[in-house]
Amino acid sequence: MRKEDIIRIEDEHLVRTYQKLGIVISKGKGSRVWDIDGKEYLDFMGGYGVAIVGHSHPRIVEVIKKQASKLIICHGSLYNNERASFIEELLKVSPKSLEMVYLSNSGAEAVEAALKMVRKFTGKKKFIAAVGAYHGKTMGALSVTYSNKYRAPFAPFPYEVEFVRFGSIEDIEKCDFSNVAGIILEPIQGEGGVKIPPPDYFKAVRELADKKDVPLIIDEIQTGLARTGKMWAHQHWNIEPDVMTIGKGIASGIPMGVTLAKKEIALSLKVGEHTSTFGGNPLSSSVAKAVLEIITKEKLEERARLMGQRLIDGLKDIASSSRVVREVRGLGLMIGIELRVRFQNVLFESIKKGLLMLYSGKNTLRLLPPLIINEKDVREALEILKFSIINEDKRRYIEQ
After folding, report:
1. 195 bridge partner residues
2. C-alpha separations of 63 from 60, 70, 254, 287 in Å
3. What CATH class has 3-53+299-399?
4. Are 20 and 351 in contact (CB under 8 A)?
5. Residue 47 and residue 287: Cα distance in Å, rounded?
6. Which of the four CATH numbers 3.40.50.300, 3.40.640.10, 3.30.360.10, 3.40.1440.10 does domain 59-297 have?
C-alpha cells in the first residue's frame, strides 16, 4: 500500500484523537524504526515509553511465536501456567508488601482497578492527586488526571478529587481527610513535563498517609521497569506503596496493565466486581515474563543509569550555550528538555534529521528511549539535538 493511501485511510476513518506526525512506520529493530520509504529514525519516542527492551527484541519475538502456536487466550475463570509463571516472576521484583495482582490491558485500566480497590476498601469517595498529574483518559483515571484540556469536555466525574501541588507536602497536610479514599501520585510526572519532586517529599507523603490511615497509590506506568535506573522509581526515595500500577513496557507492546496491592486492599473486591476478558491472557503473560527476564539478564537498570547520565550531561552541555533551553532534568532514561519557546521547531527539525521524540505541554521535549540504547545512539541523538537547538537559537536571534 502506498504511503499516500495509508495516510488517507487513517485520516478519513480513524477517530481524530492523535496529533499525527506525518510518518508511516513499517519496521523496528532495537532502538531504530524505519518508515515505509526506508528512512531510518533513532526512536527516542519508544511508543510513548513502551519499547522498554527495544523493538522486536529476539527473545520477545521467539516467545510470541512459541506461545501463539500453543494458546493465545485463556479466560480468568480458568487457570493458566503462563499467567502463574509471570505473576511469580513479577512478585520477585516488586515491593514485598504487595502480594496481590490484578491483570488488565493497559495502564489506564490498571489505574481504574486501583481506584476501585481503594474506594471499596476504605468506603470513602474522595482522592488526592497532583497538579500536572496524568493517570489515563478513561473516566475513573481521568478523574485523577489534571489537565483541563482532557477533563473539561467530560465532567462530571465518578470521583471527587482534590489536586495539590506536586512536591508540596504542605498542600496535602491542608486537605480534609474525612472522606479521602486514597492518595495517587506518579514518582516523576511524565506528561506533566518530567517533574522530579524534592528529595524528602515521598518520605513525608508516606508518613502522612500512614498517620491518616489512607492508602498510597503509586503510578509506575511510565516510570517503572528500570526506566529511571531502578526497577521502580519510588525506590529512589526508599518508600513502599499500598497499591502500584504498571503498564506501557510490561509486555513490550502486547497490551497489558497490572495493579499490585496489599492483600487486605485487593481482597475488598469480591468475585465478579471487577473483571477483564483479555486480562492476563497467555500471550501477554508469557511476553511480560520475558521482559522481566531481559531487564535482569541485560542489566537494564544499570544501562538506564549510565546512558541516562550520558544524555543528561550532553544535553546540559548543549543547554549551557543555548538561549532557548531553560532546563534539562531527568532520572535514568526519562528526560525532559524544557525550552523557553514552543517545542515544535526543535521537534520537527530533529525528526527531519532522523530522531523521534515526545513532548509535554507547550515547551518541553520528552525522551523515553528503549533501555537498550548504546553510546553510539546517545552520540547521534545529542548531535541531532545540538543541530536543532542551535538552529532554533539562530532563528530566534534573527527574529529579534
Report:
1. 189
2. 5, 11, 12, 6
3. alpha beta
4. no
5. 17
6. 3.40.640.10
Record the cell numbers describing residue 356, joined without a space.
523521534
- Phi, psi (deg, nearest 5) at residue 29: -155, 120
Please give the grid coordinates belonging to residue 163: 489536586
Amino acid at 190: G
Kindly report the number of other CB atoms within 10 A of residue 397's CB atom. 10
Alpha-carbon distance 216 to 242, whole Å? 5
277: left (phi over 0), alpha (psi -120 to 50) or beta: alpha
Domain boundaries, the chain: 3-53+299-399, 59-297
CA gap 99, 263 in Å, rounded: 6
pLDDT range class, residue 398, cuts 50, 70, 90: low
Q: Between vectors from CA 167 to CA 162 and to CA 170, what angle results, nearest 5°?
A: 65
Contact 95, 241 (CB under 8 A): yes
pLDDT at 291: 98
Contact criterion met (CB below 8 Å) for 255 and 106: yes
Strands 257-261 and 243-246: antiparallel
Eight-state DSSP code of residue 186: -
Q: Which residues of 72-87 are buried (b: 16+ CB within 10 A; e: fewer)?
A: eebebeeebebbeebb
What confidence category does residue 285 fall into, taking pLDDT thresholds of 50, 70 and 90? very high
Report the alpha-carbon distance of residue 302 to residue 308 in Å, rounded.
10
Closest C-alpha among 169, 170, 147 to residue 161: 147
**Over residues 30-40, mean pLDDT:** 98
Peptide bond into 153 cis (omega under 30): no
